[in-house]
Amino acid sequence: MSAILLIAIPLLAAFISILFKKASPYILLFVSFGSVIILGYLPLETITIGGFSAPYGINLVLDQYSLIALYVVDTLFFLIVAIACVKYKKISTVLLVALAGLNGILLTGDLFNLFVFIEVSGIAAYLITTTNKKPLATFNYLVAGTVGSSLYLLGLIILYAMFGTLNMADMSANIASSGLTTAVAFPFLLMFIGLGVEAKLLPFNSWAKGILAHSNKLTGPMIASVYAAAIGFVFGRLLTSVFVFSDKLGLILTIIVIATIVAGEAMAFASGKVREILLFSSIAQSGLVVLIFLQGFVGWGVFLIVANAAGKLILFMIANHASDELGTDEVKAFKGLFVNNKVIGLAFTVASLSAIGLPMFLGFVVKMNILGDLFATGDYLIPAVILITSIVEGIYFVRLLMKLWYKEDNLPVVQYEFVLKYVVVVLAVLIMLFGVYSAPVETTANDIDANTIVEGGNL
Amino acid sequence: MMTLISIVEIVISVLLVVLAFLAINSKSLIKSVMFLSSLSMLAVIGFVLMKAPDVAVTEAVIGSGLVTSLFVFTLLAVRKVGKKI
Amino acid sequence: MLQYAAIVLLMLGLYGLLTQRNIIKIIISLNILEIGLNLFIVSVGFVDGGLAPIFTSVNNSSNLVFVDPLPQALVLTAIVIGVGTTALGLALAKNIYQKYGTFEIDEMGEE
Amino acid sequence: MKNFLALVFTLFLGFMIITALSNNEAFPKYGEADVSTRVSQKYLDRSVNGNPGEIIFREATNLESGPANTVTAIVADYRSFDTLGEVTVLFISSLGVALLLGSTKQRRMELDFHPNFMLKVGSRALFGIILMTGIYISIHGHLTPGGGFPGGTMIASSMLLLYLADDEFRAKIKGFKILESAAGSAYVIIGLLGLLIGSYFLENLLNNGVLGYLFSAGMIPIIYVLIGLKVGSEISGVIDNFLTEESV
Lengths: 459, 85, 111, 248
Description:
Structural class of chain A: mainly alpha
Strand content of chain D: under 5%
Structural class of chain D: mainly alpha
Oligomer: heterotetramer
Shape of chain A: globular
Number of helices of chain D: 8
Shape of chain D: globular
Helix content of chain A: over 70%
Order of helices and strands of chain D: HHHHEHHHHE
Number of domains of chain D: 1
Strand order of the largest sheet of chain A: 1-2
Number of strands of chain A: 2
Largest sheet of chain A: 2 strands, antiparallel
Number of helices of chain A: 18
Radius of gyration of chain A: 21 Å
Largest interface: C-D, 53 and 59 residues
Order of helices and strands of chain A: HHEEHHHHHHHHHHHHHHHH
Largest sheet of chain D: 2 strands, antiparallel
Strand order of the largest sheet of chain D: 1-2
């Protein structure tokens, strides 16, 4: 029972499922549920593949960091598939390959293998977004994704030419021992831009608007929460345990990321469509995740991703289902949506309040601890940015909530099927539970901080 | 001194850049597909010069063989439907 | 010399992506970018006077000077991934043509 | 004008990259790569798990990785997990093309050129030759350059020839689907067998025999033939999707 099954079984199921078209949705459900269950029995170890030890062969690293990442990504993947697989039967094989790719991204300990799995899950993502029936938006996503991963490969090859290895641990040891932080800046910047395209950072997220603004019940949650969480975890692993970058470079990256956060919040504030508000707030949150990892806080960065991913899944699922039924996603058309489906409204409110960071929710615990750690390091610019953006978030989320709860004469009639209600309520309860009883969250966060050798941070 | 190999290398490099520029800026799509195909053939020669036979075989079969035919099929399907390209 | 040509090819691909507004031209620029990247990757592993990394009856011993085989193995993967994305891009282009009747992005108009 | 500005910007960017690389002392100049400091020296000497000393063609036996072609050794043995990912990339893109273009009832697209007599007869003859070369290259992947991917694409281009030679020709897509699924799952099952019998996923279980003989390198030729069949059937599927349209 080794972690390789998380990648091999979905691949085997995908290869077999093209023969049994009718049975493929059930194979998908069974395999994605199975991968969540297997996680419970996996020992934390480094698995070498093909029998050749680490820097020469490829190894999979299953430590506490990637175990939590796998739990988050696989559970959310299963929840989305449970809701959307009936309607999107045609692409169940694509979803199986996406699951294998995502597990590969989170597990691999080899930089080129990470590139291959980013491409595998990226192409699966392009095919998932074709269900939006917007070929031009999918085409933009394909071009942006391919350029991003080509830049990542260019940076990786320059690093290989300099240090002669492709393994993450070996690479970070060589970088630290060689002390060439200025020379590493250029290839690292290329890789940062390459991954930044996928993580929707500011200058390269034009594709996100086309995809998420017209998303449906499957693409919205899948791209905004599962893929964003996976890329967030990749950033965490690269920024903290592989790269050592100099003060100057750290500053440049922080500026790029802060620009992403501010622009995302501003556009969300100004937008009139429900899905656009959620899209821009998810761009801002992915910028915040990268910002936290840049400062070197691994533990709380992980839980920021967890809080974002769970919240985004609820918000996008509800918004997309409503806009699928009503056909438009203008906020005016959604007026009074929650009046006759109270349960959905409650879950939406919990998710948005946790995104803002109000007390009693997981978002609050995470943000408070991050601000505490930042103040401890005597840094005042970034906490100021976080507080201002939380206030802006608060304004446009509360404004949206008021409209959705406001009692209107002609209420939009939207029927939520049972599975969606059940999933959304369970997630909302979890967010509240961990918000109130936050002891386990703190201990695991400090655990991750302790045993991840933080190579990153300003030298 | 200029051995035969380095002369060929310089000629290939210059041709690569010229063909790439032509492929991007040529007016009709069929012409730029042809330039792309010849660019891929030159890349094969470049790989052979750099002592990479495996990559040369793969690039020759996939790069100039398959990719060019896919482009031509797309343009044929489109020309049948729409205006001249 | 080939390494400089590879970098210039990479940049021409980027230039094509920035300026061209035709779907097929964008896919062609993407291919040029990938050809340039593949040439650069192999050029990183080139050793002057080295032999192709294959044992044959002619260069039959492991003491000879060989070229670096790892970048070539990586390029094999990169070429196939490039073909995968190009095939998808062209399939999307056919769909876009069916829907909008043209390849020019400006003529499509964002509805 | 905008194009010219963009050209100047990208060429300037290229110049910046070239200067950044040239005054980066750890980055070797073109042609002066020092392989001994790199990971790949161990691949060349086949000494990752133990140093076999000098390797002589057709005499070295039971090396840790059998293929004479070191690039095949890396692609299919040392880093075979990359190749599994790559096979998935081709699988998913041919599936995507089928999803985007395919539909239940397809018929050949009427193009305005029809194959004349020469093309019909010529391609019948060429079909056999190209198919044989493709299979040859897939089987000899561990000895000569090429391997699963070029071999598979050659098999597909021999199918392409049949498409060009005859307007009404339609390959048996159902058969290709079964072949593709069988080859792909066989590859993953070989990997899982390595995990069950040996102790590592994708471990090379059969012994490697003598370097340079046809029946050397244990599992690698089997894996490369499987990849060749899979790539061949997938790309023929893609070609079929590009040459057909919905029958009304």
